[in-house]
Amino acid sequence: MASQFAISEAEMNEMSLVLQSNVVTDVLTQVEGMLAQMTSVTLNIAVIGESGAGKSTFINAFRGVDDDAPEAAETGVTATTQMAKAYPHPSAHNVLLWDLPGIGTLSFQPSTYLEDVGLLKYDFFIIVTADRFQECHYALARCIMQAQKKFYFIRNKVDRDLEANARRRRQKGLSDDDVLRHLRADCEKNLRMGQVETPQVFLLSCFYPQNYDFPALQMTLLEELDGHKQHALLLSLPNLSTSLIQSKRQALAGAVWQRAMVVCLSSVGASNTLHATVSKLMDTVKSYQQAFCLDEESLHRLASITGIPFKELQREVTSTFGKQLSAQSVEGILSHAVSAQRFLVTQLERRVPVLGTVVAGGISFMASYFLLTSALKNLSEDGERVMQKALFVSICKQKD
């Protein structure tokens, strides 16, 4: 237990650098500023495709939203979009997916298209198609590369291709893997013909986002972003793999000491220190619930997408932090943490002496740190159980 929740060498060094002042307000302002930088960044993702390619369905699946939800991008519309429209993530409003005007029409002019839609404001582009490669895809790829922006090519509706293959399998004898390999090879070959040296192609079905290349797309985007934009995208993604959930836990763990510090410093001088501490901790744990898609709104969205009853998904959430969060339960965990972590306080004060002065011996900091670290561990495990439930149902639906 001690090693699991002990503060790392790097965290102690970082705290030592921050805690140069004994003035509570100065330290609080500095730490709150560090946290604000992580949430103030905006990520703009451009989604391009011809009419019928499934752009809107992709935007909804990427945000973990059902096509019929009020906040969903409108699907089934045959008319070409004339204006770029932003769709914010339902709980991470700083992540925006932009549905750009359709391509492949007579009015589409590749030489001016990207300038017209505001090329430079987008962080990267996603080109969505559901049929054969077209000349407009070449043109777009070249323009995006000339602007030194990244793009990812999505071959959507592969479930439709596999269904067609199943009907003619007796004649051609192709397996599903053969079909997918052929689709990928064809897209990569065409992109190379358009002078894309290392094409990034992902085969998807937006109706079954847990399958095919959707999880791989998520991880690739994360690997190729950095800094706060990577953090923003990570926390907005629906849980489609264990790797993604563990990445969320690791990213959030890196800021636990800052959040614990804010909790403690904010409560200094409060008329009811315990109440102020508990309130701040509950706010932070609720943000963790959202990140792991375990809050009620996220579970309702998942229930709508998968058809699994909300209560059934909620039963997979077993931790106190996931379903029994209350002021009383938080106070109980804090009391346990104070007694269980006393031996760590001595170690902390020896490495960061000013902390004892600022936070009354560091016990409240250590208790908050312990509670938040425990919450991340338990909520990530809850998130994995919910994800496995959704994945199992998705596989069963495909078999049917």
What do you see in this structure?
The protein is α/β, with parallel strands linked by helices and 400 residues long. Helix content is 61%, strand content 8%. It has 2 domains: 193 residues, no CATH class; 197 residues, Rossmann fold (3-Layer(aba) Sandwich). β2 and β3 form a beta hairpin. About 2% of the residues have low confidence.
Give a nutshell description of this structure.
With 400 residues, the protein is an alpha/beta fold. 61% of the residues lie in helices and 8% in strands.
Distance between the termini: 46 Å
Spatial shape? globular
Q: What is the average per-residue confidence, as pLDDT, rounded to a whole number?
A: 83
Strand order of the largest sheet: 2-3-1-4-5-6
CATH superfamily of the largest domain: P-loop containing nucleotide triphosphate hydrolases
Q: What is the helix fraction of residues, given as a range?
A: 55-70%
- How large a portion of the residues is in β-strands, by DSSP E? 5-15%
Q: What structural class is derived from the secondary structure elements?
A: alpha/beta
Order of helices and strands: HHHEHEEHEHEHHEHHHHHHHHHHHH
List the helices and strands and how they pair.
Elements: H1 2-5, H2 9-18, H3 24-40, E1 43-49, H4 55-63, E2 85-88, E3 95-99, H5 110-116, E4 124-129, H6 135-146, E5 150-155, H7 158-172, H8 176-193, E6 201-203, H9 214-224, H10 227-236, H11 242-253, H12 256-267, H13 273-291, H14 296-306, H15 310-314, H16 320-323, H17 327-340, H18 342-351, H19 353-358, H20 363-399
Parallel strand pairs: 1-3, 1-4, 4-5, 5-6
Antiparallel strand pairs: 2-3
